[in-house]
Every structure is written in C-alpha cells, then in structure tokens.
Specification:
Blueprint lengths: L19 E2 L4 H11 L4 H5 L4 E9 L5 E8 L3 H12 L5 E2 L1 E2 L5 E2 L1 E9 L3 H8 L4 E2 L5 E3 L2 E2 L4 H11 L4 H5 L4 E9 L5 E8 L3 H12 L5 E2 L1 E3 L4 E2 L1 E9 L5
Antiparallel strand pairs: 1-4, 2-3, 2-7, 5-6, 8-16, 9-14, 10-13, 11-12, 11-16, 14-15
Amino acid sequence: MAQEQDDEHFMICYETTKPRFNGGDANEFSKWVDKHKRYPEEAKKSGIEGRVTTHFTITKEGKLTKVRILRGIHPLLDQEAVRVIESAPQLWEPGKNHKGETEEMSLVFPVVFMLSDEERAQVDSVRSIPFDYGIKERKPSFNGGDANEFSKWVHEHKIYPEEAKKAGIEGRVYTRFTITKEGKLTNVKLIRGVHPLLDEEAIRVIESAPQIWKPGLNYKGEPIDVNYTFPVLFDLPKE
C-alpha cells in the first residue's frame, strides 16, 4: 500500500523597510515634531485640543513631500500641524521594498495638541458672562436657578458626536444667545468654534432646551433682553 504524503504549503514573507528619520523610526520624527510644534495661543484660550491626522510621502530620494490633512480638528491646529511637518529637516532614509530597492512610501502621521493641567484649569475658570445693558436688579434665571443651572442642563443633554470621539476632537465651543424680556431663549449663534461636529451639537443642545426662563430685570424692575456668551465644553476622559 502506497504511503500517502501530506502536501506542505510554505508561506514566504517579503519584508519591506519603512522610511527612517534621523537614524530612527517614526517615533524619532514624533519627538522632533512634538519639540518644534507651536500651540496656537487662540486655540489654548478656547480650550481646543486633540489629534490632527496627517498624510505625507517620503520619496525614494528620501524627501518628505505632499503633506495634507486626513482628519482635522480646527483650522488653527490643522495649519500648525502642516507647518511643523513641512518645516522638518530632510533627514529621511527612504523605504525599501522586499528586493532592497528604494521605494516611495506614504505615511499617516498624527500630531497631538494637548493642554497641560494648568492651562486646562485656566480655561475652565471661564464662566458664562452676560453682556451688561445697563444695571440689572435681577439676571435671567433658568428653572429657578442661575446660569450654572443651565450649564448643568446642557451638560446632561449634550450628545458627544461619535466621529469626534474617535478622532480625539475636544474643546470649548463658545455660543451667544438672548434671553428676551418675555423669558424666551432665542437668536443662538456660534462665536468661536472647535470643529463642525462639536459646533453643530452645541447649537442643537442649546436650541433644544426647555423655555423655562425668567427674564432679567433692570434697576426699575422692568423685564429686559439680556445677551449671554455661553461655553459648551466637550472633553474626553483622560487615560
């Protein structure tokens, strides 16, 4: 009886070599970017932070080129991410294919902007500030409380967009609205945004709030319109 022979299948792996920066791997480039990026002051003051995902090419001559944004956070941070990458010294070794030949390769690279605890605390100290239209004997009140009561309501009812969560987008969206002398919240506007996903949700949650305001009163005890600047905070849990 002939002995059956098992067929053996061999998998041959062809390895490629990724581009290297200044003698190191992608982590070496991350260190350089982190050291030389400039956190825009306006973004800091607005509490805008998160991860900008970029895409660029390392040519077979070892040149970094074609920098573009794959997933942005805010124009201020997006522009800085592109700037710092484009300003990097051309200290790249090109990637190689399985034959050992130099080859053009594309890389996806995140640039992280994260506030320090001190900077975040300074931003958190900003509260809802009404614009004064003459002396008021009583500010508008929401559901029997002050502006903090409205902040609690917004915090409980806002919906953090899943796409923004996955992209690490967070920050403080500044809005403006009016509490009329009839006690109605109206005329909601965006003053300073973070990202369209968060900006739209900030407007949505404010406009969806129940109309349970009492109007502000002037020094004569007469109901008046009061304009508010109101921040809506979107922050992700810190690991």
